[in-house]
Amino acid sequence: MVPGVRLVVLGKQGAGKGTQCVRLSHHYVVPHVSTGDMLRGEVKSRTPLGLRARSAMDRGELLPDDLIMEMVGRRVTEGDTRARGFILDGCPRTIAQAKELERLLDPDPLDLVIDLEVPTPQVLKRLASRRVCVDCGSNYSVPSPPLTNWTCDVCGGEVIQREDDTEEAISRRLDLYERQTAPLIEWYTKRGVLVKINGSGSPDVVTRRSVKAIEERRGGRGAGEPVAGEGATASQPGLGVMPVAEQAGETPPPTPPPAGPWTGS
User: Catalytic site residue 17?
Assistant: First the structure.
């Protein structure tokens, strides 16, 4: 079996972070720990933590670090994540969260922190075509719709365009991400665990870049599948760069659904 991994994936909205987290969790046979999915579950189940989160969101406030880390800490210390590892998606977002995560994981540190890099114009284009399941949060796009009539392939929920996926709203979120995350990237870079991955190209190509970076970090490809020669831009030497053209010639997609409300993150 492929060895497990303890991984954090960072990336601005539209960088393909969710897609890559799912793919990497399958490759390394570890849980995909998504703070967005967990929060939706807590809010939907009306747990004490979910009620606290809903109250903060209703007031338009950012969720406090202690709430996020209570939820994440509970998950990353369970048996399956302790045994094989995890792909952590959506946390940490601040240095305070990163320090608490480091404490929770002691004495088993992260293997790597991946920062998916995609140019802002490309991110804006991706987000404008993004469609999301209102029930489970699965992501689709106009070029890659669900199989049937904008109904989620995963849970059967309605797939919509988020009301806040306008260019103005997206630009505000990207600016906020850059301000919040720049110190975090610097913090992980100083610890020698951050690698910057070129997030442009097909999902398969980006996954190969990420797997290659992880295995080079661990000193070899291990028991994983052979990895093609696509490179990664990295904060440490030894990882090259190879741009990849976008694929073309896709079948025209069905008419996208109308915009609708969204309660996720």
Answer: yes
CB atoms under 10 Å from CB of 177, counted, come to 17
Residue 32 and residue 22 in contact, taking contact as beta carbons nearer than 8 Å: yes
CA gyration radius, the chain = 18
For strand 159-162 and strand 130-133, is the pairing parallel, antiparallel, or unpaired? antiparallel
User: 132-144, pLDDT tens digit by residue?
Assistant: 898 888 888 898 8
Banded model confidence at residue 241, pLDDT cuts 50, 70, 90: very low
To the query of whether residue 209 is one of the catalytic residues in this protein, the response is: no
Question: Thinking of the domain 5-260, which architecture would CATH place it in?
Answer: 3-Layer(aba) Sandwich (3.40)
Q: Which of 12, 40, 93, 209 is catalytic?
A: 93
* 23 included as an active-site residue: no
Alpha carbons 16 and 105: distance in angstroms, whole number: 26
Contact 242, 230 (CB under 8 A): yes
**Catalytic member of 6, 12, 17, 208:** 17
pLDDT at 254 over 80: no
Active site residue 130: yes
Catalytic pick among 54, 173, 218, 221: 173
How much is the pLDDT for 175?
Answer: 84
Contact predicate 241/195, CB 8 Å? no
Active site annotation includes 93:
yes
